[in-house]
Amino acid sequence: MGVAGMSFFPVFLSVVYVVRNQGDRLDGIIKSAVERLSLLVADYELIVVDNASCDGSVDILKSLTKESGYPNLQVYALTKEVDSDAASWVGLENALGDFVAVVDPLLDDINFLPEMLEKAVMGADVVFASNQQKPRQSFAYRAAYTMFNFLYRNFNGIHLAKDAPQYRLLSKRIVNFILQHPQPAITYRHLPATGGFARINMEYSAEPLSINTKKLGDSIDRGMRLLVSTTQAPMRIVTVLSLFGAAANLVYSAYVVAVGIFKADVAPGWVSLSLQQSGMFFLISLVLLVLGEYILHMASLSNEGPLYHVGQEFTSARMTRREKLNIEDASLPVSSDSYNSDQTIK
The CATH number of the domain where 209 resides is what? Predict the structure, then answer.
């Protein structure tokens, strides 16, 4: 079945948008999404997560859910800004659709959803899409991002940016699986690519709407969270460094013994001793650094409250799926005579 030359799917689709301080373009973003989704699937819901905007976006979103606004719109306004993964998860855990798409309206092209949805209905558990056109990035950000992906690939076996981009389409089964984890807002980023699910990676090219340059400082904390929460590698680094330190101490002890046996004058060994001590202190510093990061993460898991808090929630006055449930089938009329005769028989 086709609509205006476009694919049409008889499914219920949830689409998650995360926005922050985009009040001046919210109407256009949502209007474009609603027009596209209404022609794409049998039923849909557009979930907009406002990531603690301070420009009046919440009031605008509230007005868009009124009777004169757009149908099938759900809005969750967070009280404090969180990283994009945590904000996306707010929408995912409240989604009702058979499939859930996570779309950045400023970076991702919603017009690529038909190709992704086609793969999903054919059996793919998760479909990832990468835009070949990237927003501007500072040099420091690009260098750090390259290093992060190098480390993550060595720790987990996947290149996070290429194998698990943020633009994704998940089946409801995957969302339910992630919900079983103690920190789903964190594991959501990597688990669809590392959990052994049937996944497909796709590429497209579209100019992003974002004009903001990504900076290094915005992503350091998020990168550290991903590194220490998705693998046992940090603790392995601690143990390897500790083992190496113990072995180095044994070697150094043997060296001291050898100097004492074969050298009558041990004064020259002072230089070697100083170098060895400085090296050991450097090694211990590295161990403490990695161990400290790991302990901080474990403490955050045990002591922190939820990563996010929804302060306000709005739902469209018009929800098409509810209207469909209230439609009576006019092809099967029930006459008052037949009703009365049934009552008489009884």
Answer: 3.90.550.10
Using CB atoms within 10 Å of the CB of residue 209, give its burial: 0 to 12 exposed, 13 to 18 middle, 19+ buried.
middle
User: CA angle, 51 as apex, 47 and 57 as ends, to 5°?
Assistant: 80
3-state secondary structure at position 85: helix
**Which distant-in-sequence residues (6+ apart) come within 8 Å of 127 by Cβ?**
116, 117, 119, 120, 168, 169, 199, 200, 201, 202
Backbone phi and psi for residue 201, each to the nearest 5 degrees, phi listed first: -110, 130
Residue segments in the chain with a per-residue pLDDT below the cut of 50: 1-5, 303, 328-346
Residues 243 and 188 in one domain: no
- Position 138: which residue type? S
Domain presence at residue 333: no
Q: Which residue, among 213, 214, 166, has the nearest Cα to 188 in the 3D structure?
A: 166
Q: Which 3 state secondary structure label does DSSP give 104?
A: coil
Judgement on whether residues 215 and 272 belong to the same structural domain of the protein: no
> What is the number of domains present in the chain?
2
The CA distance from 33 to 178, in Å, is 26
Residue range(s) defining the domain that contains residue 260 = 233-303
What's the confidence (pLDDT) of residue 246?
65
Nearest to 245 by CA among 237, 256, 255: 237
**Total-model pTM:** 0.69
Is the same domain home to 320 and 253? no
Do 96 and 220 have their domain in common?
A: yes
pLDDT of amino acid 224: 60
Are residues 107 and 213 in contact, defined by beta-carbon separation less than 8 angstroms? no
> DSSP character for 137?
B
pLDDT at 320: 77
What's the pLDDT score for residue 345? Answer: 39
User: Do 254 and 321 sit in the same domain of this protein?
Assistant: no
Tell me the C-alpha distance between 205 and 290, whole Å.
Answer: 39
Residues 6+ positions from 145 with CB-CB distance below 8 Å: 137, 161, 219
Is residue 135 left, alpha or beta, with left meaning phi > 0 and alpha meaning psi from -120 to 50? beta
